[in-house]
Amino acid sequence: MENLLHNILSKDSFDTLFARIIELLIVYGLKIIASIIIFVIGRWLAKLLSGIIKRVLLKSDVDLTIVSFVTNLVYFTLLTFVVLVSIGQLGIQTTSFIAIIGAAGLAIGLALQGSLSNFAAGFLMIIFRPFKVGDYIEGAGVAGTVEDIEIFTTKLKTPDNKIVIIPNAKLTSDNITNYSTT
User: Fold this and answer.
1) Average pLDDT, stretch 115-120?
2) Residues 156, 142: contact at Cβ < 8 Å?
3) How far apart are CA 91 and CA 149, in angstroms?
4) What is the mean pLDDT of residues 131-137?
5) Of 67, 101, 104, 182, which is most buried by a Cβ count within 10 Å?
6) pLDDT (tens digit, 9 = 90+) per residue, 147-164?
7) Residue 65 and residue 67: Cα distance in Å, rounded?
C-alpha cells in the first residue's frame, strides 16, 4: 500500500499527469474554441441570410404574416444546422440528433396535417389573391363579403349579417366565384 502511495505521489507521476492534462487541454480546448467560432459565425450568417430574405419579401409586397413566418423558419432551420455542425466539431456523433429531428418533424407533420393544409392554402391565397377583403364571393357552399383573410381561415359576412369562418383548405379545394372583380 505504501509503495502504491509513493508511486502516486512521486515527481515522475506528477510530471506525466501534468503533461497528460496539458495534452488534453490542447486537444479538446482547440475543439471547443473551433466549435464556439463555428457557432458564432454560423449564427451571424443565419441572421444575415434571414434579414436578406426578409428585405426581398418586403420589396416583393408579400403579406407581413408570410414574411415573418418565412424569415423565422429560415433562421431557425439554419440555426439548427449550425448547432449540429458545432456539436459535430466537438466529436459528438450527430446522426442520432438528425434522426430525432427527422422523426419529430414527421410526427408533428402528421399531427398537424389538417392545420398544415389550411396554412398552405392560406399562404397560396395571400400570394395569388383570388379575392381581397371587401369582395363578394361564393365558395365552400357559402356566399358573402370577405371580412378577413387569415393564414388558417377566411371570414365571410353573409347578406343576413352572419359571420362564417371557413378553413382555407376547404375554400381553395372548391370553385371560388368572385362577383366583385368585374
Assistant:
1) 86
2) yes
3) 49
4) 92
5) 67
6) 988 888 999 999 999 999
7) 5
pLDDT the model gives residue 67: 84
111 in Cβ contact with 150 (< 8 Å)? no
Grid cell 383573410 is found at 149
Q: What is 91-113 written as a DSSP string?
A: T---HHHHHHHHHHHHHHHHHTH
Give me the percent of the chain exceeding a pLDDT of 70: 92
**What pLDDT is attached to residue 123?**
82
The arrangement of strands across the sheet holding 142-149 comes to: 163-167, 153-157, 142-149, 136-139, 176-178
Quick one: angle between helices 11-59 and 64-89, nearest 10? 160
Residues 145 and 178 sit within 8 Å (Cβ to Cβ): no
**Rounded Cα–Cα distance for residues 126 and 150 (Å):** 9
Please, what are the domains in the chain? 2-111 (1.10.287.1260), 131-178 (2.30.30.60)
Q: If 0-12 CB within 10 Å is exposed, 13-18 middle and 19+ buried, where does residue 138 land? A: middle
Residue type, 167: P
CA dist 178 and 149 (Å) reads 15
